[in-house]
Structure formats: structure tokens, C-alpha cells
């Protein structure tokens, strides 16, 4: 049951009290109903029995009167006496039978009377004692022997109606039903009151539990006032209070434990921060003199006059110094990883240069060990990628260094290939490629049981590795952390005595060759594009056309998304579409979706992947996400400006040239169309302003807020070109928002301000 219902005292139809009430009231109703019908049945049977007893007394007197007639075989006299039965109330029929052969040999009746519509009693069998005994039968049949001095003279049988019993019975049933109903309602009311009073402690406990659950205040207790100590509810309340006391104690203990844990956590974080700071400081203090020592040792080793023993000693000192430098770097990197201070960059780099640098850095070490260090880069690997070259180089240096360290004879090979994945066979700039870097050596190999823990911290293949080859056991763990931070995977394939292959895969974004980009950008200004502009506002159409033609491009105007789709399907060639987001009939997002699908109704589009640049006065994050999700290539804010538009179209030129499209040379212009644009825009806006106001009034009359918002959007877009920071632009933007929110009163109240701002702007020009 919801806590709100408990707090409000709403027990609900499935509460225990209601269920008990249903059982009790149902039992009471059943008992009263059974008692009602039993009493009715008994009353009906009693009334019938009384009537039958009374009738038998009467019939016995009639039999006495018939005795002389039957004794002297006087049929007429018998008939006269029998006819007197017609005067008896509720009479239906009478039959007098002879005994044996007194009147006839077959027991034929000598006298028969009956009321009209009643069935006669034809034989003695009809007067058996079993008939007429059921209380619900409409009549009763009574027989009485006629006794004479010499014995049984015959029988008289009568049938009497019982209709009068039913009228009295129904009156009695009504009174009994009324009394039963009064008794039932009174008993139910009393039982309900008693049950509610009896269950009140349970409701109190229920309310207390609801309050505890809502407030989490375990100090609350059930008030057991008025409860008998031996009552079950009192025991339940005591148990509930004991449970709440235990929960309160445990909650206090848990809160204390949480405070202790929080203090320990803060202390641990401070200790970790101090450790990181300490390692950073110490590593800096250690690396500075170590770098000097290593540099001096390199200079001394170049001295050809040194004896061979001196060279060996100095070389050993240099090796130890470089090993110490590696250990210091690994400890610092691990501390940074633990502290979350390592960030992955996403910059353009040459993967060829990164791999070459890593191999060249360790080439001298390979020569010293007389090992063959080779580099192979597959021809399918693109050179320019976007990622973190520093971390990729670090992982490669670590893996190559390990391979050289654990290889005594043979070679170490570095191989870079395209990893199998679902990307395109010939990826283009902007697409993801997955590269696989592998370092293959002919060294000592690794046991299979050690492979699973090889990338754990402070783990090496066996305990003797540190003594034989040195190291901290952190290098591979750092590599794993860095690769996973770059959304990659790292692994190893090895057999003891057969060398090892360490490999990792990274998803990287392919980039354009910078040299090629410079060349294209330099030449982009020489080409002219066929631009389709989907814009519904005439002033905006004029401005965009002027901007495009001023930059040497050709322009075709479509008033909405539908017209734009018809233009794209007409066979006319276009290089790019500038699509307004909000237009009547069909907006720019819907039109872009249809274009990307390749068909719309009966229209088919020869270039569904044509570049589409959106234009919106609300250049928000949600608009940008919606445009990109629909398939647009970019989104520009309105009013369009010359600089951003030029850069966007330069990108389109580069894309079209890369696709092999032949572009025309730019149009030669002898005047700056933009300088002459404002008077034309102002004239067009002033002409269209009254019509815009009429459209607003028409929309308000039918509460068409979508149309009102569209008109305000048009006014705002046009005003933004003429008065970017003017009162009309601000007022139109505010009223567009009011229309979108269906705020009728505020919108109507702002109409005079709009008219005033419009008049003032047109007067100022």
C-alpha cells in the first residue's frame, strides 16, 4: 500500500479490516437470510396446518349429518346434506363415496359437487392422505369416514382452496423482512464499530511504520496506550518497538561506521595525492641528475682512447642508469594513472613518423645486442590519423624494449597493419580505421600459465626475471592501461622457447594529408559552386543570393523543403544545399531525411549524399544534434555571415574535388552586391510587414500557434539582417518563444509592442 494512502488513513479495499468486515458481514447476511426463509417456511406450514385442522372438524360434523342418509341409502338426502358444503369458505369440490356395495358395486360415487373450474375428485385414490400435504400446493384434500352402528358406511372427501393463506402470509413476510433488515443493519453497524475499535491498534502501528518509512526516523515508537498487556496487539506493538530500537541502534552504528569510512577514504585520497605528488617530485629530482649521468656516459664512451675494460665498465654504468630512468618513469606513469591525471589527446599525426621514432630510439640497443630490428608497415595503412601519438609511441617503446631485453639472438620485428573490422575497404578522411601494432621477437617466450597475469601490476613471467633482466613489472600494466584509455585492446601470443608476439589494436580517425589540404584550400577560391538555397523568407533569399553571388557562386532558390526536393530530383546539377531549418509545408530536417533516403514518393534523387548545410536562427546544441542526426553535414547560425559561409563552401569545394567532380570557374563580378543589399532588403521587408501582421491576427483567431510561431520566426529572421541588435529583432524573438509555449495572454499583450517596434524600425530605415 502506498505510504501516502497510509498517512491519509485510506485503508484501501484489500486491507485486513475490510477483508474481515466482508467476511463478518457476509456471514451475518447469510445467517439472517437463512433465518428469514426458515421462519417464513415454518409460518406458512403452520397456517396451512391450522386451516386443515379447522377444516377436519367441520368435515367431521358433515359426516355425522350424512350418516342417516348413508345408512338408509337415501341418495337425495345425502345429496342435500353434501350440498351444504358449498357454503363452507374456500370450498372447491366434494365427493361422497359408498362403502363397498352399499350403493353400487364398484365404489361409484353417489353424490358429487364441485365449483366451476375445479377438477372433480373422481376416485377414492385421489383422496389419499399423501395428497394436499405440501405447503406450496394451491389446495388441500381432506377425507372423513362415515361411521354407522354396523360399521363403515362410506367416505366424504372435500377439496379446499388455500389462496387466503397467501395474502396473510405475504403481509407477515413483509413485516418479517423489514424487521430482519433493521436487525441486520443494526448488527452490522455495531459490529463495524466494534471491529474498528478492536483494530485501532493495528492502524496505529501501520501509521507509525509509514511515518518511519517516509522520514527514516527510527526513533519513533508505537504508542501502546489503552492496550491490555495480555492482548496480542500489545505484544505486537512491543515487538515492533523492540525492532525499531534495534534498527535505530544499527543505523547509528552504520552512520558512525560511514563517518569513519569517509574519514579513512579522505585520508587515503590525501595519502594517494601525497604519494603522487611525492613520486612526481622525486622522479623529477631523480631524472634530472640521471639524464646528466646518462648524457655524460654517452660522451665518455665516444672517447676512442679508452681501454676495453674501461669501456665495459662505463657501458655497464650507462645501462644501469638507463634502467633506473625507465623504472622511475614507470612508477611516475602508474601514479598518474591511479590519480586519473593522464588524459588522452586527439590530434593529427603521422603514424609512420611515430613508429619510425620508436624503432629509431631503440635501434642502438638492438645493435649492441647484435639483434635484427625490422619495421614493416602495410601499404593499406593510412599515414595521417587522429589520436595520441605520445601514448602510442610510449606503448611501442615499452613493447619493443621488452622484446629486445628478453631476446638474446635472432630478431625483433615491428609490424603495423589494418586490423580486420567492418570499416570500408578504402577509408576516406573522417572515417574510423583500426590499426594493429605487433612486436614479434625470437626470445625466451612465456609459459602459458603466466599469460593471464602478465598485464597485472608488479607481475612478470617468473620470479627470476627481475634478477636476470631487471624492471619493476609495471611496464606491461601501464601499456594495458594506456591502450584501454584509447579504446583499444592489448594481448600476447607466446610459447616458452619459441618467442612472443605482443600486439594491440586502436581505433583511429583517418585525416587528410595536411600538404594536400593546403593545396586544395589555396585553390578552392578559384571554383564556383551550384548552390540550392531552401529559404521561405524573401528578404533572407535576397541576402543569401547576394552573399553567394558576391563570392562567385551560382544560386537557385526554393521556397520550402518540398520545392527543394523537386529541384534536386529535376536533373539539375547542384554541389551543395543550404537548408533553412524552419519552413512551411516541409522543414529542412524532414527534407534532408528524404534526400538521404534516395526517394520521396515518386521522386528519386541522383545524389543522395549531396552536402547539406543547415541554417538556423537558433544555433543551439539541440538544433545541431537534430540536424546532424538527419544527415546534414554542418549547421550555420542566422543571419549568415560572409566569413563562416566562405569557409563552409571552401570545405564543400574540397569535398567535391576529392570526389572527382568538375567545378566551373568562379563568376567575375564588377560590383559588391552586398553593399547595395540593405536598401533592397528594407524595401522588401516594409512591403511584406502588413501581410505578416495580418497572418498573425488570422492565426490568433483560430488559435493556430504553430502558424503564429512561423510568422514570428520570419519577422525575426528578416529583422536580424536589417537591425541585428534592434528592438524589433528582440521583440520578434521573444514573441516567437511565447507562441511556441502557447502563452496566449502574454503573446496578445506583446502585440502592441511589436507594432511599435516595427513602425519605429521602418521609420529609421
Q: Please, could you describe this protein's structure?
A:
By secondary structure, this protein is α/β, with parallel strands linked by helices. It has five domains: 1-217, Beta-Lactamase; 243-342, Helix Hairpins; 345-511, Heat Shock Protein 90, CATH 3.30.565; 523-670, Rossmann fold, CATH 3.40.50; 679-764, Four Helix Bundle (Hemerythrin (Met), subunit A) (Up-down Bundle). It is built from 21 helices and 20 strands. Helix 18 (677-701) packs antiparallel against helix 19 and helix 20 runs antiparallel to helix 21 (744-764).
Major sheet description: 7 strands, mixed
Instruction: Tell me roughly what share of residues is in helical segments.
Output: 55-70%
CATH architecture of the largest domain: 2-Layer Sandwich
Count of helix runs: 21
How many DSSP-defined strands? 20
Overall pLDDT level: 76
Distance between the termini: 69 Å
CATH superfamily of the largest domain: PAS domain
CATH class bucket of the largest domain: Alpha Beta
* Unreliable spans: 1-9, 101-132, 463-467, 515-522, 667-675
Write down the CATH topology of the largest domain. Beta-Lactamase
Name the overall outline: elongated
Structural class of the helix and strand makeup? Answer: alpha/beta
Number of domains: 5
In what range is the share of β-strand residues?
15-25%
Structure characteristics:
alpha/beta; 765 residues; 56% helix; 5-stranded parallel β-sheet; elongated; disordered N terminus; 7-stranded mixed β-sheet
